[in-house]
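User: Run a structure prediction on this.
Assistant: Running it now.
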Amino acid sequence: MADIFERLSGQYVGIRGYAVELGKWYARAKQLLAPIIDNPLFDRLVLVLILVNATTLGLETSDVVMARVGGLLHAIDQIIILVFVFELTARMIVRGKAFWSDGWSIFDFLVVAITILPFANNISVLRALRTIRALRVISAIPSMRRVVNGLFAALPGMGSIVMLLGIIFYVFSVMATNMFGTEFSKQFGDVGSSAFTLFQVMSLDGWAGDVVRPLMARYPYAWMFFVPFILLTSFTVLNLFIGIIVDAMQQQHYERLGKTDLLAAKRMGKLEGLFGSEKSSGMAEPSRPAEPRPDPRFDTMMEELRHLKDEIRSMASAGNALVAAARDKAMIEPGPKDAG
């Protein structure tokens, strides 16, 4: 029993020693890789490699190009993959748990992991998925990240519009099937066919020549059904999508401004704590309540109202000038009796 205990103790000490050595190696690697990952030039290099890789993946689809420089393109592709693997490994070492809490880091990891699977080159679908490495451009450019974040932030509001659009499609599909299904069974034979045809009408792709005009040859008043549908879907509901996306992106812009102001306020507070007059004089001044930050949207609205007021004044001045000119002209021109 004592021998077993001594063996287990020895194994525990050995494992603990390996863990300590591994921790030291991890600390040294983190200290070495942190300046590289945090360097803006490294980010620019990765962005350039992403663009080059996207170009080579497109050139690989050409048989003529592959016949001439196919080996060179494969070599460039393999080198870029190695750089991507090094970048992600370094980021995982430097960031630690923070790497897995960032959605864009997980996105980069999945994109690279799919393309380096051992059987990716043998399966056509996975081989085609190599092109998704070009999507890393989104995570590499901050402005594109903000656009994508705005789209995801707009998804909850877009759900209600999708439901509204689905109800409109269902109602008009049933109506079209009942009205045109007997004569035009190919386009309006059932609810599914009618919905597909109405989707073509909503996209405004050949809706007049392929759909509506043949119907009007048999039903002259068919335009009274399709024009309101186009106005509801193409010009109203779809514009609501755009409005919600723009509003979500504006909200993110205001939140980013708020975070920037908060960071600046914290820095100013630290400076006041170090160089403020309280410590130099030995007397603490009473704290003043922070003034509320004005809403940029309110300022924009007030600016638009001021512009509108100026335009109304200019239009009123122009109208008065026209009235005065007409009055002067009426006084100068002779009347019918004076002309006689």
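The first helix runs from residue 2 to 37.
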